[in-house]
């Protein structure tokens, strides 16, 4: 059956694999719960498959745990099956449902062997298969027997000798039983989140269905570009709500709308940040800012050969690693995707959550993927089952994604850590993390004055660096510690009416740095040793990179 002119890649690959005889079983995973545009409607994946691929099939079975087994096409043909009348109501339990289909297939195979009856094209659609055939129960005999039978559908006679196709629909490939998911006789096809053309088509259809949700002057393609990474299903829900409220979507809404929809689809696994800051807001040596701006210029120009795959920001606690990421993203005009509750959410759970995150990130277009406290989040691949570190499988998935050259120019990975020595060496290697930047505290009282002046300026009380020359300003001052001093100084000007210098002087009396000196020196030494270029390290601080005593 010919496909629509602009059929998605996964559908074209599926059709080719079946029609050529290369495969008869397919695992469709990823964005499988989304809606798809079909003949003026938004339909489910099963409806889309049926319309696009299964029009020439005489018999189509479907199964899901909620509805049980059903015959969606060719029920009249089953009446010629002698065993049909004895079946009674079609079963709801997975084992019984699979047995019915297996028996019918064997019946058709026997007829074929006897030269009786015409060949039938038979399809079996199994929805939500990762829910009732999970990969996390290796010792369960019932699960194993189901997996064995489905595996037989793909490769064993008589099923493989028939014009038979089975479609296993799952959210995440890694949540499915490995005997089925990674069967070499199975074609695995990832369904991505919709690209701009498919979002444009969906918006055009939604505009017809719900005109009250749209501004007539707003083009669908422009909106689709702004909403890249959003599922059609989530977009449909939003449009229906806006139509009910008679509140059209506006371009100004897109940032917040996208944030809400993407975070909703990610089920709390990520945080989506659109930053309005720039590198001008970050107090750092010019050499670092110049380097970062050069990379942004390469990114914008599409010259990817010298563009880093990823950065590692390392340095003591409070040196502004997270803030720098937001400033860099704002300067580049791209969103930040923060991996949220990374470690906690995956303890004892499957790789499917990670798979879902990667699916969302790939659909967003250009963005920065940020992993804070990477030493704790990523851990060590050999940490063992007794701790809460990532399993070897999860570690491998992250490492593979970080080194995927196809992501260069689309994703920029940024890891932050005060203990980069605890991150696996191969995760920090070039090709995954190309640039390692030490973020360090101030090296002199003059630098401390400049940093404090920048922060006090936000409160409208900056006295100028020259006016602070007579104060006992600390060195090795981090942005986090300086911000705390600035807030305390502002508080004293408001609550006690002190001028800014008097307030600052009082704050400095008895000042205790938030990070002990020995810890600060240790974290500085590690950061300096990680640096890919010593020009990132001020001359006055380079001695901290020496050997520990």
UniProtKB/TrEMBL annotation:
Domain AAA+ ATPase: 307-443
Keyword Nucleotide-binding: yes
GO molecular function: ATP binding; ATP hydrolysis activity
First and last residue of the signal peptide: none
InterPro entries: AAA+_ATPase (IPR003593), AAA_ATPase_domain (IPR050168), ATPase_AAA_core (IPR003959), P-loop_NTPase (IPR027417)
Keywords, ordered alphabetically: ATP-binding, Nucleotide-binding
Protein name: ATP-binding protein
């Amino acid at each position: 059956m010919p496909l629509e002119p602009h059929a998605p890649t996964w559908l074209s690959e599926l059709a080719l694999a079946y029609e050529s005889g290369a495969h008869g079983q397919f695992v469709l995973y990823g964005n499988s719960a989304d809606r798809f545009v079909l003949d003026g409607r938004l339909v489910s994946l099963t409806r889309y498959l049926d319309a696009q691929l299964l029009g020439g099939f005489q018999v189509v079975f479907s199964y899901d745990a909620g509805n049980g087994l059903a015959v969606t096409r060719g029920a009249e043909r089953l009446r010629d099956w002698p065993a049909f009348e004895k079946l009674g109501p079609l079963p709801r339990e997975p084992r019984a449902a699979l047995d019915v289909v297996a028996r019918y297939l064997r019946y058709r195979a026997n007829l074929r062997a006897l030269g009786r009856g015409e060949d039938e094209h038979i399809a079996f659609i199994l929805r939500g298969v990762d829910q009732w055939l999970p990969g996390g129960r290796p010792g369960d005999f019932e699960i194993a027997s189901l997996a064995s039978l489905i595996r037989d559908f793909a490769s064993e006679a008589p099923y493989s000798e028939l014009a038979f196709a089975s479609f296993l629909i799952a959210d995440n490939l890694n949540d499915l039983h490995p005997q089925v998911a990674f069967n070499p006789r199975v074609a695995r096809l990832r369904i991505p989140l919709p690209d701009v053309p498919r979002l444009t088509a969906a918006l055009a259809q939604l505009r017809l269905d719900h005109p009250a949700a749209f501004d007539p002057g707003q083009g669908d393609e422009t909106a689709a570009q702004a909403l890249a990474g959003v599922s059609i299903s989530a977009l449909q829900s939003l449009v229906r709500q806006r139509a009910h409220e008679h509140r059209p979507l506006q371009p100004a809404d897109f940032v917040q709308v996208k944030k809400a929809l993407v975070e909703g689809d990610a089920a709390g696994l990520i945080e989506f940040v659109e930053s309005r800051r720039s590198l001008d807001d970050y107090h750092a040596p010019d050499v670092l800012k110049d380097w970062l701006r050069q990379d942004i210029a390469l990114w914008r120009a599409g010259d990817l050969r010298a563009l880093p795959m990823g950065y590692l920001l390392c340095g003591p606690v409070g040196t502004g690693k997270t803030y720098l990421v937001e400033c860099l993203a704002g300067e580049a005009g791209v969103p930040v995707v923060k991996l949220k509750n990374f470690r906690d959410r995956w303890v004892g759970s499957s790789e499917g959550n990670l798979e879902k995150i990667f699916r969302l990130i790939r659909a967003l277009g250009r963005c920065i993927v940020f992993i804070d406290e990477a030493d704790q989040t990523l851990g060590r691949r050999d940490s063992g089952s007794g701790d809460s570190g990532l399993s070897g499988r999860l570690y491998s998935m992250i490492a593979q994604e970080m080194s995927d050259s196809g992501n260069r120019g689309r994703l920029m990975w940024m890891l932050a850590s005060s203990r980069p020595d605890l991150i696996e060496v191969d995760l920090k290697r070039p090709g995954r993390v190309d640039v390692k930047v030490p973020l360090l505290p101030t090296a002199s009282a003059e630098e401390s004055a400049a940093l404090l002046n920048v922060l006090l300026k936000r409160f409208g009380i900056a006295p100028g660096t020259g006016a602070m020359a007579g104060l006992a300003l600390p060195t090795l001052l981090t942005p986090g510690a300086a911000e705390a001093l600035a807030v305390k100084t502002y508080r004293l000007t408001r609550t006690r009416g002190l001028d800014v210098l008097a307030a600052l002087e009082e704050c400095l009396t008895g000042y205790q740095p938030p990070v002990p000196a020995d810890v600060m020196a240790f974290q500085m030494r590690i950061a300096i040793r990680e640096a890919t270029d010593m020009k990132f390290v001020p001359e006055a601080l380079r001695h901290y990179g020496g050997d520990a005593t």
